[in-house]
Structures are given as C-alpha cells and as structure tokens.
Amino acid sequence: MSSQRVCRRDDLAPGTSRRFEVDGHKVAVVRCDDDLYAIGDTCSHAEVSLSEGEVLCGEREIECWKHGSTFSLEDGQPQTLPATQPVPVYEVHWDGDDVVVTVPDRVTGGSRRAAGDGVGSGASS
After folding, report:
1. Which of 52, 77, 117, 124, by CA, is between 20 and 30 Å from 45?
2. Which helix (H) or strand (E) covers residue 40, if one does?
3. Rounded to the nearest 5 degrees, what angle is found at the Cα of 45, between the Cα atoms of 86 and 124?
4. How far apart are CA 42 and CA 25, in angstroms?
5. What domains does the chain contain, in order, with CATH numbers?
C-alpha cells in the first residue's frame, strides 16, 4: 500500500472534487461536508475524468459530465446508465488538516490487476 498527502483541507471545499495522481493511480478525491471519498477518476463508460463532474453529496455520488452516469462514492458502483462497470475506491482520511490517500501498490511485470482494484472508501470525519 502506498499513502500520499494530496492536499490541505482548505484546498478542497465541501461539495467539490479534485483529481490527483497517487502512485500511478488517477484518483478523484471528493469532500462532502467533512467526509472524504476517493474513487478512480476515470469513468468506466467513456474514459473521461469524474472529478470534473457534479458532486451529489446528498446521494453520496458523483456524476460523469459526458453522459450523466453516476457512481457511488462509497463503493464505486454505477448508479445510472450508461455505465455498467464500477470504478475503484481507495482509502482516504484526514491527517490533521491534510488529506491522505492510500492506494494499492502497482503490479509490475506481466500481471494485471482486476477492474475495481480499490480497497474501499475511507469516509471519515
């Protein structure tokens, strides 16, 4: 597992998301009030950045700006079509005023990780 500080509390306003790269993983970090979520930043349907979409805090979802699919911030599952495949979720937490994301180590050589290689959401307050 690889952990990285990605930003400070003031860099991520409530109800917003930002894209970060953590050890080769494209991650969308989302803040709903003081809860944090980290999911794969690439839509499983159209290969576009989810962090550019609308954050739906009441539903704990993020919407892909291209075709309108929404994904659960808690488990990465698609909630609406056209997406049918989940995106990975990653551990994320506050460390004081820092936002820290943990991703699995990258696999090297001929091995490939399965889709949905995340390790779970880390919503915390």
Report:
1. 124
2. strand 35-40
3. 35
4. 10
5. 2-103 (2.102.10.10)
